[in-house]
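ok so i was messing around last nite and threw this chain in just to see what happens. nothing serious, just curious
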Amino acid sequence: MQETHFDLTTPDGEMPCWVIRPDGDGPYPVVLFLMDAPGMRQEIRDMASRLGTAGYYVMTSQLYYRDVREFNVFETGDRDRMFELMSNLSNEMVNQDTGAMIAHASNDAAADTSKVGVVGYCMSGPFAVMVAAAHDNVVAGASFHGVRLVADADDSPHNHLDSVNGEIYIGAAETDSYAPPEMIDAFAAALEASTATGQVEWYPGTEHGFAYAERPQYDRAASERHWERMHDLFARNLR
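result:
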């Protein structure tokens, strides 16, 4: 595997990015791996690397770059700052950032941007849906224990499913105060009524954050199932 770290210039500044891909020449399908609220850290890059071993050109980035160059709540313990950084991000900003990432990949012979995937967790779960709605070549989007999938706002993800040119997968924790059952059910209904394809799946016995091995809510069986579902989604749509 190869890992490259660089700053990607966007209209709002320099965004730290990482590309993780197999050693071969490619081209490999591109997958955007969106960080969760605690911030960019080695765990994110390790998960991106695991995905890359399946033959993908995986890109991840520090989405908080407009405010800070580095942030990891597990190191600082500053949850108030985490929530502040979260609130400063918008769907439009992330759509802009992912557009810049895709543009960068389109100039790399090792990347194939004709069909792109995106995955998000927690904070970035709704971003993944919105990125799929914003970019025509993003044909597969996955959200795991994603928040704010349905909100009282024009840019709520459930309002933009008709713009998705592909398949959406939602993996929901059974117990999740950030994504309660009524919100997940409302998103499932919107997905069913939309022109997008996809599914919502519950993960019984799990809590918010179950996919992350370094969190106390980690559930090994559920996390492995989330990897299986993600691999199936991307293999179906990107290969």
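not much to say yet. Residues 133 and 160 are 6 Å apart (CA to CA).
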